[in-house]
Predict the structure.
Amino acid sequence: MAPVTTTQRTVLAGARVVLPSGVVEGGRLTVEGARIAANEAAERESTLTVDLAGHTVVPGFVDIHNHGGGGASFTSGTADDILTGVRTHREHGTTTVVASTVTNALDVLARQAALLSELVEQGDLAGIHYEGPFISPCRKGAHDEALLRDPDPADVRKLVEAGRGAARMVTLAAELPGGIDSVRLLADLGVIAAIGHTDATYEQTLEAVDAGATVATHLFNAMPPLQHRAPGPIAALLEDERVTVELINDGTHLHPAVLELAFGSAGADRVAFITDAMDAAGFGDGHYDLGPMKVEVLDGVARLVEGGSIAGSTLTLDTAFKRAVTLDGLSLNDAVKAISTNPARLLGLADRIGTLEPGKDADLVVLDAAYDLVGVMRKGEWVVRPH
């Protein structure tokens, strides 16, 4: 007779727990195996109780726009490099990460996508996000202008197919030739069409949303500023209920007043915090490569060596969460929506992650009284054991 095995139950007791229904003080969260079993549970022989009094438990963070970390790149690195970046962000609370590329030749991007797709199949990544090359040279940011191209639907399809089912999002400038047709193609393929690095007018942006675009890539950055006679893409993306807006809450990319404007206009259900992180996230200052571009990181700010444009960020989502609730004045529930629930919904994973509910993956973050990260669990296993 085969031995009987008992799945370990872990009860996280005494913490403030942020649930979809609200914040529960002195709550109990039960984990059984890789899943959340219940919001409370009776003690039993196989139960391990972890006292988290004075702490806050929130869902694991979900990052839909991330180029690397820990000194490693998702854009050009090996499988080991990519896993180093994934581990770095997990240690900072990001239990689900989409790997973002940067502009490069199509064949180079296709080769990297093949590698990334293997890690998606293994469960290490949640998908691939192509940021470029289908973007405007007027708003190229940290992308190589010589490698930019119009979003011809045939090329867009090529990259999506290179991802072998792992492509989740493509950022493009819909005002370029082929842009609207490519948005329609992506919508038909079930891939998120994101508007970004764009010089589109208000009207062109609305046309893209009508065609199926549903995300604004790092809103405010790499697009025309909001003007009273030419509102441009910002106003169109903020006002349309079909669009979720990415925000980089690192204190460098956005002024706090602009963050407040975005939340006030779009509402907490339509904001997704992202890192737009590059290799230096969780690693430190120095010189790095971002695809074919050279980057210098000084005092935690990444800029191109040539031209000085901001080149992604060194942000991790635990820092973004702490800023949100301590400096930006967001409620715990609204911060959780922006950093977990909304991006999980965008990825089509809301049945598995994004909230602390029975049956979902046991992905969670433990924060101390100052909202500093002290614990991370992913699929029931401690990545960072609470201390």
In short: The chain has two domains: 9-58+354-384, 61-346.
